[in-house]
Design brief:
The protein has eleven helices and 14 strands. It is of the alpha/beta class. It has a seven-stranded mixed beta sheet with strand order 7-6-8-9-10-13-14, sandwiched between helices. Strands 2-1-3-4-5 form a five-stranded parallel beta sheet, with helices on both faces. The chain has a two-stranded antiparallel sheet with strand order 11-12.
Amino acid sequence: MLHTSALRTTGLTALAAAAVLVNAVAAGPLAATGEDAPGVHEDRILFGQSAALSGPAGQLGRDMRLGIRAAFHEANAAGGVHGRNLLLTTLNDSYEPNLAFPNIQRLLRADRVFALIGAVGTPTSRVAVPVAQDAGAPFLAPFTGAEFLRDPTLDKVVNLRASYYQETEEMVARLTEDLGVMRIAVFYQNDSFGEAGLEGVRRALQRRNMSPVAAWSYERNTTGIKRALLGMIESEPEAVILVGAYAPIAELVVMARRKIDPVFMSVSFVGSEALLAELGVDGAGLYITQVVPAPHDNSVPVVAAYREALAGYDPDASPGYVSLEGYLAGRLAVAGLEACGRTVSRACFLDAFRTVSAFDIDGFELNYGPGDNQGSDAVFVTVIDEDGELHQVDKLTGAR
């Protein structure tokens, strides 16, 4: 496990957006109870989420929504937060920025949600954050490790997870130290998400006086990997770091292994359960970095709580890394509201993450403070075994 808050950097580039609203399902407009408390009512508080519910990344959004709802259901069953139930409105953006932008506008202006939670992806978060900042709305626990979200000037953003720079640092450390690998390449999504991962790899290698032997990309929401595959076969890297969604990564790994056999490592955004479903036993030996504990390990108190909450909300749902992260996001929202007491405002909610140094969510500790909007620095390494199951490891073996 890695604890490297020093790897965080700042910087926010120009943000763009505009489009038509499609495929949105939302509650009707809600009146605010105060200038700083839209979405807060006598008996309920409304949160909003724009996430991929369809397309090649759709499982990620559905799982984040599942975890958040499980946490809210758990809180509501116990009487709510200071007597108020928590509700979630989710709109589908299909992992496209031009759909996320009008979704965020609708959630904040028409539905008047109290806060945004569980956004899925870097490119969609990039267009959503300026709107949230402008509106003064908390932007809580996005499912992305993008560095721009760690910028301390983004005072409405509250990150839950470790960054992509931290994940890629752990990958490079394990590849070089455990396996002695020197020829490391990158396969990445050709957008701000993939570029964040690519830059993380470059920085980690640079610290070791190395650089990527090659880098190939594919277009978001496609499985167009053939050009990258040809370059990969020709380059014969010892290891390939994967920065993408589950569908294209699964296709690349299966096709590449017919010709070459590098060590494959993927960042957490891939969605482990969705990738396992695509790969099955063909994924044996593929490593995935994670930013939350193993969702099947009941010996971890927060995992036991998550599994109980998930079963209470949807008995047919299977535990997974992404829905566990969604559950933690929901629990973090509960913790922030509890810190405010009965008088809830956005300012009070956000102040909780600046004035309360640590939030202990059943043993999963999150630390915030002035200039630090990221709660966890934890990175875990997992591997797919010969039976197509995922388990945590302390060291890479490189064997399939």
